[in-house]
Amino acid sequence: MIRAILFDLDNTLLENSMDTFVPAYLGMLAEFIASHYPQPDAFIRHLLKATDAMLANAGSGRTNQEVFDATFFPAIGRTREEMEPLFAEFYATRFPLLRSLTRPIPVARPLMEWVFAHGYQVAIATNSLFPRTAIEQRLAWAGVPVEEFPYHFVASYEVMHATKPHPAYFREIADVLGRAPEECLMVGDEWQMDVLPALEAGMHAYWICGAGVEPPAGGPSPNGRGTLADFAKWIRERG
Ligand SMILES: [Mg+2]
Question: Which residues pair with 20 in a beta bridge?
Answer without folding.
Answer: none
